[in-house]
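Worked example

This section walks through a single chain of length 334. The input is the sequence exactly as stored; nothing has been trimmed or padded.
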Amino acid sequence: MHYAMDERIKKQLPLVCIVGPTASGKSSLGIHLAKVFSGEIISADSRQIYRGMDIGTDKALPDVNQDAVPQAIGRLIPSRSGEVVHWLLDIADPEELYTLAQYQRDALHIIPGIIKRGRVPFLVGGTGLYVAAVVDNFVIPKGNDADQYKIRAELDVRLHTEGLQELYRDLCKRDTDAAWQVDGKNPRRVIRALEVCILTGKPFTQQKKQKKSRYDVLQLGIITSTEEREKKIRKRVQEMIAQGFAGEVQKLITKDYDRDLPSMTGIGYKEIGSWLSNGGSVVLPLPEEVIEGIVVATLQYAKRQMTWFKRDKRIHWVTDAQEAEKITRKFLQM
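Given that input, the structure is written out below as tokens.
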């Protein structure tokens, strides 16, 4: 079905977002709605951007048939998965630095083309900052790439020599509000916030300025009970292991990717990478403590995601595809 958008929608640049915690069913709902309303999907997942990291990120893999895929936009090459065009998958190698500013620029570059083709853009993913950068049109501090790499490298060295706690203390001195806005146990977020403070000379938490949104936005969130979420996460972890997650991590290690890279510190990659680097082998079953470590880390991440998204009162929370379809149809026909 090709969904004909009216003039109001064409002028106001519609954007439908599907958010929620990991393992909630965002990807399947996104594909379903994109099929119903002739849409294309822009991934909002900070791990799915990396090539060679498919199983552990639950990436939508390309269909065998790649006919009728839109033309690439520079280095941004779309793919067809589940009979739906996907953007911003496999756009960086694991060792590449890919910033929030780059993501915002890429997404904002893609969306107008989708609308111009008479289709509906669906922003789908659980990386809250990615979604907010597009929906709320953040003004993101710009820095020279060379300076950014230099500062990032220096902070990585400090992380290993001084420890995360000392970096977090430094951040809180530079930015008093960081104590409650930045997760002090997440090295990547602490380093990112410090990096911005150093580059701009201003507190990180004061820099999320917004310009007027470019879009008429509908945000849908998938809500599940805590018990159902844990059940789905445990099932997903077991499925990933059965699909060869350990082998995928081994291939990355064989390519000499540093285990401290942002890509390699993702959930599952970190735990399995540590086990493999300490005598583990892909020919051996993963120890239960490694599997449970992945499950616990995923549950904690899902909890943080829900905390982030629940703060946004604009999100319409749904429990199934039928409810989401009804709300989306009303939005597109207003």
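What to look for: The beta strands are 14-19, 39-43, 79-81, 84-87, 120-124, 138-139, 209-210, 216-222, 315-318.
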